[in-house]
Design brief:
2 copies of one chain form a homodimer. By secondary structure, chain A is an alpha/beta fold. Helices cover 28% and strands 33% of the residues of chain A. The mean pLDDT of chain A is 91. Chains A, B: Its EC number is 4.2.1.51. Chains A, B: GO terms for molecular function: prephenate dehydratase activity. Chains A, B: One of its GO terms (cellular component) is cytoplasm.
Chain lengths: 281, 281
């Protein structure tokens, strides 16, 4: 039986992504006879560590949101547990609901949610509930437990979470940008995958040389390979010293990608390849 | 009188940076006859907006931490209020203290701090106070008020904050990485500055072309200009559409930088130059 770690508790967007992957699993793995089981973990680094240490087979974690940008904990943990390979990418649309027993917006005194969800609704909150105090929580569902006890409280979570907690939704969607979605990665210790539309890698650059970043990037451009994303993270050694995470629109099995990866070795300090994978929308 | 916005309340690292800049001000501006006054603001975007709308003369805001990486709110707000220019950069060492009335670490049940400070001490906390619940707050000093009421509570903040609140420090430093520092920018509406060791700019790339990012970066490499930093942020239009923030190690007044900036125009969609400035350590 395949076990999949995700950031719990029940009702989070991460669980919605895990459920979506669970539903896709039989199509992606027709040889498998059982449906995977989902295992909630208290944080993203712990879910990733569980997959790296074989407590579970896979971890599904958010990588990037279209409004908030990269999920730095996921990138930092993957750099640390670099034996993990990306099995699949998944894009989930995010729609935030205001969940409360209040009858009108004017009755709401406090709004609870995860800091990212509060940030994604900040203009809506300023316009429609300017009187409310905004209180950050560890997950989008944490606030729902208190909402049931007091009708002056509200939480921001998904419509699905509201239904799970049997609580009413007063407004939905309330996210400031309608085109809000989050990309997830499914990580596991299986051998490097070479098929798929995208490949992810990361490298630390050779320091303080003009072109230390440009030369590695030029390798891809010279071969006509499109970069779909670049994100820098500190190496934590000193200010100004970075790891670059790069997604390219090509598979490792293509000969010109093999050539590019060979050319990268002398231009980088440490180079890590996280495999090729497809994206499920 | 020069008024400077910063992220309050009193006792935060942002205030320490503002005080450092206040002390430097007479040396940087010998023509000025009065010392600048400091004005606390409730968030980074509000401090930046105050400078852009001339409520204050300057805003001092964190840009990047050596462990946690870029401060996305600062980059997103600067892209929005792009008439602002960087006047000065400032690097502040960060040393976190565990502030509590508890006599031993084993007595501590809850640790309060800003999520970034909790993250920067996570290994120390797991090792020395594994029993404690970690509670995020809006600023590093917010937890200090409750710490004075109950000896089972602790807060993570600076030694300076402990002294301001007349509270004892049980352990210091407790940050996981000794070389922890934060870079700040001083922003203002003064005419573009052209002198200094560094120049910052940002651009949105022409979409989905191989080399859309490499070509602008090559402009600098070809002229031997070192990039000291690159950070991508979502444009918030759709997933996969980015703004790139770049710091170069050269001044706008140098002719080859002028040449590079001219060459960039046809290679980018929107290009914004935030001026040249020096870095105070």
């Amino acid at each position: 039986m395949t076990a999949i770690a995700y950031l719990g508790p029940s009702g989070t967007y991460a669980e919605a992504a895990a459920l979506k992957y669970q539903a896709l699993y039989p199509h992606l793995h027709p040889e498998s006879k059982t449906s995977p089981i989902l295992c909630p973990y208290p944080s993203i680094p712990k879910a990733i560590q569980a997959a790296a240490l074989k407590e579970v087979d896979l971890a599904i974690v958010p990588v990037e949101n279209s409004i908030q940008g990269g999920v730095t904990m996921t990138l930092d943990s993957l750099w640390q547990w670099h034996q993990l390979q990306i099995q699949q990418a998944l894009v989930l649309p995010i729609e935030h609901a205001l969940i409360t027993q209040a009858k009108t917006l004017a009755d709401i005194k406090v709004v609870y949610s995860h800091p990212q969800a509060l940030a994604q609704c900040q203009h809506w909150l300023e316009e429609f509930v300017p009187q409310a105090q905004l209180v950050p929580t560890d997950s989008t569902t944490e606030g729902l437990e208190v909402v049931s006890t007091d009708s002056t409280l509200a939480a921001i979570a998904s419509q699905r979470a509201a239904e799970m907690y049997k609580l009413p939704t007063l407004a939905c969607p309330i996210n400031d940008h309608p085109d809000n979605c989050t990309r997830f990665w499914v990580l596991g210790l299986t051998p490097p995958t070479t098929k798929g539309s995208h490949t992810s890698l990361a490298f630390s650059a050779q320091r303080n040389l003009p072109g230390a970043l440009v030369k590695p990037l030029s390798v891809f451009a010279d071969l006509g390979i499109n970069l779909s994303r670049i994100e820098s993270r500190p190496t934590k050694r000193s200010l100004g010293d970075y790891v670059f995470f790069i997604d390219i629109e090509a598979s490792v099995e293509q000969p010109f990608v093999q050539e590019a990866l060979q050319d990268l070795v002398p231009l980088t300090e440490t180079l890590r390849i996280f495999g090729s994978y497809s994206i499920a929308d």
